[in-house]
Amino acid sequence: MSIDNELTYLFKLYGSDKIDHLYTDKYFSYLNSLKNEKLNILEIGIADGKSLLAWSDFFKNSTIIGIDIKSIDIHEKKLNRDNIKIHQGSQSDSNFIETLIQKYQRFDVIIDDGSHFPKDVIKSFKLLFNSLSNNGYYFIEDIQTSYIHFFGGNPFDLKYSNTQMNFFKNLTDSLNYQEIANPFYKKNQYDSKINNITFYHNLVVVKKGFNEKKSNLVLNNSYEDMRYLEKVNRSNNNIKYFIKYKIIFKFYTLLLFFLNWVKKIILLRF
Ligand SMILES: C[S@@+](CC[C@H](N)C(=O)[O-])C[C@H]1O[C@@H](n2cnc3c(N)ncnc32)[C@H](O)[C@@H]1O
């Protein structure tokens, strides 16, 4: 295998399996420009500490925080470096994660290489998202467990199971939350806070960032309200447009909303 960047070299040096998964080029492309910054980098899952040692060499000015459910012997694993901090706890334990957030305040890069169980991956993402810096990256490794029932995944009902893959697929709707022409749509905690979500083989990358671009077609989650506004701004025939957009079109939207609500009840999809 050719070693064409420093991160690949370091992960190979310390024997991390991030090489076998072909993650290292991706990490390099996102993180190389941040190499000299003073960041808080959190990795869930330490094991032998191989990746922490690589991050520690690469991000010399940053604090590398590793968490693991198991007790880690920092001397045996040679993790007793000034820029490495180790904490024992579970990624899905809200008290533990809250204590971590209180201590470090913000994380600029988060890597989830922990249990890989869908419920843990989703829970820690929910617990940690607010503490991710604006423009920060959240990497989720080994999402193939979504497709393996021995890990709590579901290979039989790909689109509607509670896997991390579906969680992140659904999260992509947040990118377009202003375009959702459903007057009952409720903004969630991710809407307006995600810049992009990228899917690779076994890896998902979420970039946090402001996303408040208004829709060109939808106003306050209503297409008919936008059309009404456009029309009355261009003409004086308000009554005609009021009847068309505020009554007839609105009624049609409400009817579709109701039919979809019934469909969801019949299919038990909430
Ligand atoms: C794949 S290994 C981590 C490898 C390491 N990141 C590297 O690249 O060298 C997964 C680690 O996650 C830890 N782990 C498992 N369940 C966890 C949980 N619920 N919370 C935190 N860590 C967990 C395991 O103890 C194990 O050490």
Task: Note the topology.
Layout: H1 6-14, H2 24-31, E1 40-44, H3 50-58, E2 63-68, E3 84-88, H4 94-104, E4 107-112, H5 118-128, E5 132-140, H6 164-171, E6 194-200, E7 203-208, H7 223-234, H8 238-266
Helix pairs in contact: 1-2, 1-3, 7-8
Bound molecules: S-adenosylmethionine.
Describe, in plain words, how this protein is organized in 3D.
By secondary structure, this protein is of the alpha/beta class. It has 2 domains: about 5-210, Rossmann fold, CATH 3.40.50; about 225-265. About 35% of the residues lie in helices and about 15% in strands. It is built from 8 helices and 7 strands. It has helices at about 5-15, 25-30, 50-60, 95-105, 120-130, 165-170, 225-235, 240-265, and strands spanning about 40-45, 65-70, 85-90, 105-110, 130-140, 195-200, 205-210. The longest helix has 29 residues, at about 240-265. The radius of gyration is 23 Å and the shape is elongated. The model has no long low-confidence stretch (mean pLDDT about 95). It binds S-adenosylmethionine.
Strand order of the largest sheet: 3-2-1-4-5-7-6
Kindly report the CATH topology of the largest domain: Rossmann fold
| CATH architectural category of the largest domain | 3-Layer(aba) Sandwich
**Shape assignment:** elongated
Mean pLDDT: 96
